[in-house]
Design brief:
The complex is a heterodimer of chains A (368) and B (282). Chain A has helices spanning 12-16, 23-28, 52-61, 94-101, 123-126, 146-156, 161-175, 190-201, 220-237, 248-254, 272-279, 299-303, 327-337, 350-358; strands at residues 33-47, 65-79, 83-87, 109-114, 130-134, 208-212, 240-244, 257-262, 265-271, 282-289, 307-310, 315-321, 340-347. With 368 residues, chain A is α/β, with parallel strands linked by helices. In chain B, helix 9 packs antiparallel against helix 12 (231-243). With 282 residues, chain B is mainly α. In chain B, strands 1-2 form a two-stranded antiparallel sheet. The radius of gyration of chain B is 21 Å and the shape is globular. Chain B is 72% helix and 1% strand. Chain B has one domain (13-276). The relative contact order of chain B is 0.13. Classes of the chains: A alpha/beta (368), B mainly alpha (282). The A-B interface holds A 3, 5-8, 44, 68, 70, 91, 93, 95-96, 99, 102-106, 116-117, 120, 122-125, 127-130, 132, 134, 137, 139, 141, 143-144, 148, 152, 155-158, 163, 184 and B 1, 3-9, 22, 25-26, 29-30, 33, 36-37, 40-41, 113, 116-117, 119-124, 275-279, 281-282.
């Protein structure tokens, strides 16, 4: 129903030129690669703003300029059909990267080649082949019915009426947007608006979709809806998706591959499962005591150097290093020491791992 | 569906014509989108029309009051000044209708980051900024201008020949282009310097100088209004030509040349500026 666009593919050999030594990139590279980024940097010149009235007057005349590398020699390759999570703390350089990849910003140095285009040089042709959703903003016309925005976008992207109707039908089937197509955008809930924004970004059936925090501010049901839709279009049209997010559930549910960026540099690029396996050192056991009198017996654990935290009145938690402590030994120990009503073994949440990476604690042997 | 590949768009003159044709069609789409927005706030439209009309009338009554005190202004009769005033309202109106977005460009598009979205669409960025919103109530300025000119010519006993009407359209368009280009040049400053207000307000006020005969000003001011910010050139010399007065030098033929030069410069500067755009954040 929706024919794929086949951009001119380039031979794999041509790509080698940009990645002469890096074997990791070579592994991911094939004739089917969609995005090539090499040594990409963006520097901003900012100045320190002084405070107060006098400070702002001074700012007009004297400025201490500093050059900040928002993105610092980043390189990666993404294949057609991949869904990649691009994560990092605020100000890490995520949005700047996305803006260079979408052709909004001109890089300070480095190379980008996407689908055969250099985004910032062939902007008008290039943007026809991508869809972009910024979670914090909408591209829809605020004051009028959603359908009017779609109609104008159809004209802007030169989509035929037949394709337009077919796609609207299809989006409605997954996103259920029909009910509020005639509502002004300003009256939509955030979740409804996001669905419409997604549909708007995909109206021209782009092979590549950029999402900047697509689930920000949404409730659980709305998030689930969006994720379901993204999986569906990825499966059906093999749409390549690059998404930034702070919600690691997005990543766990959508992406097999993640890239972690901080201070403008890529810290990790690989499979999520691998990251977990390599960095998941800490496990935790939560257990519920039968009654309060049992609590005194827990002192024995503290003497062994194990941390025992009280979660609530009867629930306790022990965190341990799975390399040093055997899980089964520990369980036995707990059962011997106290009478337990319930017991639960958990992996360290992915958030904790990411936090450790940001803090520079985690050793990233797995990466690069 | 056509294959999208690099350089898929036609190049050369054929490509340019195709692009122009496409944008021409999109202009109507953008305008009707704007009309839909305005229709959804009807009250707002009428209030805005009323205030904008009141402003025109106040400004115009200044000329009337002035000529109640003095019979002539440096050899210019009331009717002649009114004709010039009326003519200058035409580019002013055109400018207001189209360039509302330019006035707020730095704040709205650069600082708030709306320009990101503009760059994500496969059409000209300047086209989008100019035509995303209009100020249709400024049609009253064009109408008032035409009325002033009609009233003045009737009292001056001048006839409107088809050639004169054509001249009016032609020079009106040229002057409109000059007005828009000047503000476009000023707007591009926002690509380099992030300031909320921008440099528009002082130049905006200069427009008022273009409504009176250039010959009442001193040489420096005349030069400024002719060649630096050519609001004077744009309205004065065409009016003189249409009034049939002789004056030297006769710069009217230069008006279209200046319009083309300013527009070309403005568009080039705009395209250069978009590459400097640094978006918001970090």
């Amino acid at each position: 129903m929706l024919p794929r666009r086949c951009p001119a593919s380039r031979s794999g050999v041509a790509h080698l030129r940009w990645f002469p030594v890096n074997a990791r990139i070579y592994n991911w590279m094939s004739a089917d690669s969609l995005i090539h980024v090499h040594e990409l940097s963006k520097h901003f010149r900012t100045f320190k703003r002084r405070e107060g009235v006098w400070g702002s007057i001074q700012n007009l005349f004297v400025r201490d300029y500093r050059t900040v590398a928002a993105v610092d020699r980043v390189g990666f390759t993404i294949e057609r059909g991949e869904m990649v999570g691009y994560i990092g703390p605020n100000g890490a350089g995520k949005s700047t990267t996305i803006k260079m990849l979408t052709g909004i910003l001109v890089p300070t140095s480095g190379e980008i080649r996407i689908n055969g285009f250099v985004p910032y040089r062939q902007r008008r042709q290039y943007v026809k082949t991508i869809g972009v959703v910024f979670g914090q903003r909408t591209q829809l016309w605020w004051d009028i019915a959603v359908i009017e925005s779609f109609k104008l976008l159809r004209r802007i992207y030169d989509v035929s009426q037949r394709d337009f109707d077919a796609r609207m039908e299809h989006f409605d089937a997954i996103l259920n947007i029909r009910d509020y197509l005639h509502t002004p955008v300003r009256k939509l809930s955030l979740g409804e608006r996001m669905r419409c924004d997604l549909a708007a970004a995909l109206l021209h059936n782009p092979p590549l979709l950029f999402l900047d925090e697509p689930t920000i501010g949404l409730d659980v049901v709305a998030k689930d809806h969006i994720r379901h839709f993204l999986r569906a279009i990825n499966r059906e049209f093999r749409t390549t998706v690059l998404l930034t997010t702070h919600d690691l559930d997005d990543i766990e549910e959508l992406c097999r591959r993640i890239m972690i960026i901080d201070h403008g540099k890529v810290l990790y690029d690989g499979h999520l499962a691998q990251l977990k396996q390599q960095l998941l050192r800490t496990k935790q056991i939560k257990f519920v005591l039968k009654d309060r009198t049992q609590a005194d017996c827990l002192d024995a654990f503290s003497r062994d150097g194990l941390e025992v935290d009280q979660v609530d009145e009867l629930t306790y938690r022990i965190r341990f290093d799975r390399v040093k402590v055997s899980t089964s030994d520990l369980i036995r120990k707990i059962l011997d020491a106290v009478e337990v009503r319930d017991l639960l073994i958990e992996d360290e949440p992915i958030e904790e791992i990411i936090k450790r990476i940001y803090a520079g604690e985690a050793h990233l042997e797995v990466s690069v | 569906m056509p294959t999208i590949a690099p350089n898929a768009e036609k190049s050369g003159i054929a490509g340019m014509l195709a692009t122009t044709h496409r944008h021409f069609g999109l202009f109507f789409d953008y305008f009707s989108q704007y009309a839909k927005v305005r229709v959804s706030y009807r009250g707002d439209f009428f209030i805005s029309l009323a205030t904008s009309f009141a402003a025109t009338i106040f400004a115009l009554s200044f000329v009337v009051v002035l000529f109640n005190k003095v019979p002539q202004l440096a050899g210019w009769r009331f009717e002649e000044v009114l004709f010039l005033y009326g003519f200058s309202l035409i580019p002013y109106g055109i400018f207001n209708i189209i360039s509302l977005n330019l006035y707020d460009f730095g704040n709205n598009y650069i600082i708030e980051g709306k320009f990101d979205r503009v760059l994500l669409r496969p059409i000209s960025s300047l086209f989008q900024v100019l035509f995303e919103t209009f100020r249709i109530e400024s049609l009253q300025e064009v109408a008032t201008g035409v009325f002033c000119m009609w009233w003045a010519t009737r009292h001056l006993g001048l006839a409107w020949t088809p050639a004169k009407v054509a001249l009016l359209f032609f020079f009106g368009l040229c002057a409109g282009i000059i007005y828009i280009s000047v503000f476009l040049i000023l707007s591009t400053v926002s690509f380099w310097f992030e300031d909320r207000i921008g440099v528009h307000p002082p130049v905006w006020n200069v427009m008022a100088f273009g409504r009176y005969p250039l010959s009442i000003y001193s040489g420096v001011v005349q030069f400024f209004l002719c060649w630096i910010i050519p609001f004077g050139l744009a309205s004065f010399y065409p009016s003189v030509r249409m009034l049939g007065r002789t004056i030297s030098p006769q710069y009217a033929p230069l008006v279209p040349v200046v319009a083309v030069v300013f527009l070309t410069f403005a568009i080039s500067l705009w395209n250069f500026g978009t590459r400097h755009y640094s978006s918001t954040g970090t």
